[in-house]
Amino acid sequence: MLPVLFRIPLPGGASLPLHTYGLLIAIGFMVGIWLAQREAVRRGQDPRRLADLAFWILVSALVGSRVYYMLVNPGEFFSPARFLVETPFGRIPRVLAIWQGGLVFYGGFIGAALTAAWYLRRHRMGFLEHADTLIPSVALGHFFGRLGCFGAGCCWGDVAHGHLPWAARFPPESLAFQSFADRPDPGQYLAPDRLATLPLHPTQLYEAFGELGLFLLLVLVVRPRKRFHGQVLAAWLMLYAVLRTGVEAFRGDVERGVILGLGVGQWTSIAIFAAGATVWARARRPAPAGAGPAAAPAGGR
């Protein structure tokens, strides 16, 4: 892992760190928007309007992902000892230091989806057909985001008992190490010399490459065979929920919350899968006579 790529010197001896997490989030967003605009042109949609929507999606996704994380981990933000964080420009509330991690994808997705629904309705743009254009970019952007999680050492996995060639150890500056050190039994998670964690499942990479696989599946298989608006969106909702549930089985950051034996992420995955199944079932119904064409052309441009 590499939380900070390099530091930019500032006057007075201070320096401005370039965080791997923030850089990869930015790359994922830019690549995702570029691909979505290309698809919008191909489908006869307005790419400039889509770029405008992307800005509001970015803002709402950051807010939603932060709010979700804060609801599950309030002690990290509101205890007297952790309320403020040092930066090259002085001390600021920890809630603003998003480059240090602490963003939950599901919160960002829900915030972005609500904002997109509002924006598309306001501009009289069809939700499902534009969601089909955008959702493969979400999968690819999430691929870059999870690589950033690996760089920051957040969203870590459980201890990999036994020999696991791809297991990862995280150093003291990682969120994984710091969270384990705060637990009542840190010896179960940290190496005896306390220079790194024990070998952990790299769940960030499990999910990253799972999302990359979903992106390729959507653009190479689902979208070319699209038969109705909302099909690409529904496919991703259900497939990602299954992927996330599988990855959650190897997660070790129980600080995110456990309810009735399941993690908060698993409960959210159940809701996301149900939403995908509902979209699929409702969107594939033939439009009532006189309601206008609803289905995409055969072959799904």
TrEMBL record:
HAMAP family of this UniProt entry? Lgt
Database matches in Pfam families: LGT
In its UniProt record, a GO molecular function of this protein is: phosphatidylglycerol-prolipoprotein diacylglyceryl transferase activity
Q: Name one GO cellular component term.
A: plasma membrane
The similarity comment for this entry is: Belongs to the Lgt family.
* Main subcellular location: membrane
Q: How does it sit in the membrane?
A: Multi-pass membrane protein
**EC annotation from Swiss-Prot or TrEMBL:** 2.5.1.145
Q: Which InterPro entries match?
A: Lgt (IPR001640)
The residues the record assigns to binding a 1,2-diacyl-sn-glycero-3-phospho-(1'-sn-glycerol) are: R146
One annotated GO biological process? lipoprotein biosynthetic process
**Where does it live in the cell?**
Cell inner membrane
Q: What is this protein called?
A: Phosphatidylglycerol--prolipoprotein diacylglyceryl transferase
Q: What pathway, per the record?
A: Protein modification; lipoprotein biosynthesis (diacylglyceryl transfer)
The organism's taxonomic lineage, starting at the top: Bacteria, Pseudomonadati, Myxococcota, Myxococcia, Myxococcales
Known role = Catalyzes the transfer of the diacylglyceryl group from phosphatidylglycerol to the sulfhydryl group of the N-terminal cysteine of a prolipoprotein, the first step in the formation of mature lipoproteins.
**Which top EC class is named for this enzyme in its record?**
transferase
The transmembrane segments are 20-37, 49-69, 97-120, 228-247, 259-281
What keywords are assigned to this protein? Cell inner membrane, Cell membrane, Lipoprotein, Membrane, Transferase, Transmembrane, Transmembrane helix
